[in-house]
């Protein structure tokens, strides 16, 4: 049987879609609004303990990678079909390449901080 | 010898860049797809937050300060709107994309829809507790 990569891309796309739908809204409300605007005020020490735990870092990486694949896969078709940029290979390379660069950046941030 | 192949130019209708603005359903479709930009942006934002928190009290305070700039607030508010569109459309699509059977009977779409919103509420409450209360 020939190995095909596309089913795995679609699977990760779906997984990332679920993660973005279920986990991301509350994170955005907290990190982009509630904390900066002072609606809630957890101490820095508490947050530091949270991000320094390996459980948090592994969980974040496991959530981030499928979300990046999801975004790249979706954006690829948005650019190709939506914006009619008919350079199939170039668009795919830019999208998945961008996701890979961001995944590596995430790995670096989550392992070094 | 094989027969010579005549290439017949096929007719391809040209579609403009803004083919999706004239119909509501097309417009919503493209808006839904564009939510991907903001998913990527919020991943970056989340990483910047983690880096700032790990960088100590001062860097964290600077991060919060910058996050209250009008530009970032507007970008994040627009992004959140796109994210909500993603969540609502994604949940609505799930029962159509997959058939779930329990005890030989098909789980109705409305039950699957409700289960997803319950999952959203549970996960949101857990993360809120983790960040704010724990």
From TrEMBL, chain A:
GO terms for cellular component: membrane. The keyword Nucleus does not apply. The chain crosses the membrane at residues 7-34, 54-77, 89-110. InterPro entries: Fumarate_red_D, SQR/QFR_C/D. Keywords: Cell membrane, Membrane, Transmembrane, Transmembrane helix. One of its GO terms (biological process) is fumarate metabolic process. The keyword Membrane applies. It holds the Pfam family Fumarate_red_D. This is Fumarate reductase subunit D.
From TrEMBL, chain B:
Signal peptide: none annotated. It comes from the Bacteria. GO terms for cellular component: membrane. The chain crosses the membrane at residues 34-55, 67-93, 113-132. Keywords: Cell membrane, Membrane, Transmembrane, Transmembrane helix. This is Fumarate reductase subunit C. The lineage of its organism: Bacteria, Bacillati, Actinomycetota, Actinomycetes, Propionibacteriales.
């Amino acid at each position: 049987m020939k190995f095909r990569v596309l089913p795995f891309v679609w699977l990760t796309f779906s997984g990332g879609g679920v993660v973005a739908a279920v986990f991301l809204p509350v994170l955005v409300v907290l990190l982009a609004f509630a904390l900066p605007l002072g609606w809630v005020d957890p101490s820095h020490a508490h947050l530091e303990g949270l991000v320094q735990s390996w459980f948090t870092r592994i969980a974040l990486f496991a959530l981030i990678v499928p979300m990046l694949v999801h975004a790249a896969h979706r954006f690829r078709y948005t650019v190709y079909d939506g914006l009619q940029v008919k350079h199939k290979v170039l668009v795919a390379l830019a999208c998945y390449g961008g996701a890979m660069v961001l995944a590596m950046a995430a790995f670096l941030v989550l392992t070094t901080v | 010898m094989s027969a010579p192949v005549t290439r017949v130019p096929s007719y391809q209708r040209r579609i403009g860049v803004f083919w999706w603005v004239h119909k509501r359903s097309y417009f919503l479709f493209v808006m839904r797809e564009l939510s991907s930009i903001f998913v990527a942006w919020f991943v970056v934002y989340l990483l910047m937050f983690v880096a700032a928190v790990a960088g100590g009290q001062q860097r964290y305070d600077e991060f919060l300060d910058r996050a209250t700039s009008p530009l970032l607030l507007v970008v994040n508010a627009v992004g959140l709107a796109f994210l909500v569109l993603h969540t609502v459309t994604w949940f609505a699509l799930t029962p159509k994309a997959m058939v779930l059977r329990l005890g030989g009977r098909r789980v109705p779409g409305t039950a699957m829809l409700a289960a997803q919103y319950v999952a959203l509420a549970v996960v949101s409450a857990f993360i809120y507790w983790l960040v704010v209360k724990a």
